[in-house]
Amino acid sequence: MEPFQLKSETRLHLSSLEEEIPGLVAGFTTKNGGVSKGAYKQLNMGLHVLDDENKVLENRRILSKELNIPLNRWVCGEQVHGTSIHFTGEEDAGKGSISFDSGISGVDGLIINEADSLLGTAFFADCVPLFFADPTKRIAGIAHAGWKGTVGQIAREMVQKLKEAGASIENLKVVIGPSISKENYVVDDVVLSHLTGEQKQKFTKEISPNQYFIDLKELNVDILVQSGVFRHNIEVTKYCTLQDERLFFSHRRDNGKTGRMLAFIGFEKQKK
């Protein structure tokens, strides 16, 4: 069953987690319903591309209003295609939400706990978003996994850090979000050199000399299972960012000049 449901113009709701975990807010924006123009039309969420900064901030305010989570509760990492994870706290509230330079440097993964009522965010235009949530401990996480982060095993790092934060791996739910599909993602020998022989056999297909299809979604599934996550607790979307042009920006399809979608996860503010 597809974990994401398109219930509004601006975003896919991560319904499978939201319905299971009361108070959880999680999803993935589309490219629609915003104010950006040209190559970034309409709902570009990335401040690090060459879009008008004021339009990006207005796009973020549109989503903020829909989620009822103010920008000063958002947390954004720099995203350097690495494997560093940050445990968020109250001191991180608002970092990266209204300026790129104020984001948490060197970070591709964020861990959120319910008590802080923060929204963990990450930006995408083909790379793989990884959503994590423990329904019992009420801890969540978001990670950015391009090919470098995937082969660097950011998924394994997230599992380890979530354990350190108190999450139960037996109960941990993981969802692999909209990203480029195997049929549309061609890489070369440089990328394959980072894979084991078994991974090459299972997750790549040669199409010509030095050209291969690679399935980053299923490769991340394999890494998660090897890290102790139960396979039945992992869901994988069928959405492809390159193929679903009416919904998504795509770095590859749009030749690098394009907007970014926002993946987000967090908890509603607790009522006193």
Automatic annotation (TrEMBL):
It catalyses: adenosine + H2O + H(+) = inosine + NH4(+); S-methyl-5'-thioadenosine + phosphate = 5-(methylsulfanyl)-alpha-D-ribose 1-phosphate + adenine; adenosine + phosphate = alpha-D-ribose 1-phosphate + adenine; inosine + phosphate = alpha-D-ribose 1-phosphate + hypoxanthine. InterPro entries: Cu_polyphenol_OxRdtase, Cu_polyphenol_OxRdtase_sf, Cytotoxic_necrot_fac-like_cat. It comes from the Bacteria. One of its GO terms (molecular function) is copper ion binding. Purine nucleoside enzyme that catalyzes the phosphorolysis of adenosine and inosine nucleosides, yielding D-ribose 1-phosphate and the respective free bases, adenine and hypoxanthine. Also catalyzes the phosphorolysis of S-methyl-5'-thioadenosine into adenine and S-methyl-5-thio-alpha-D-ribose 1-phosphate. Also has adenosine deaminase activity. Belongs to the purine nucleoside phosphorylase YfiH/LACC1 family. NCBIfam families: peptidoglycan editing factor PgeF (TIGR00726). This is Purine nucleoside phosphorylase.
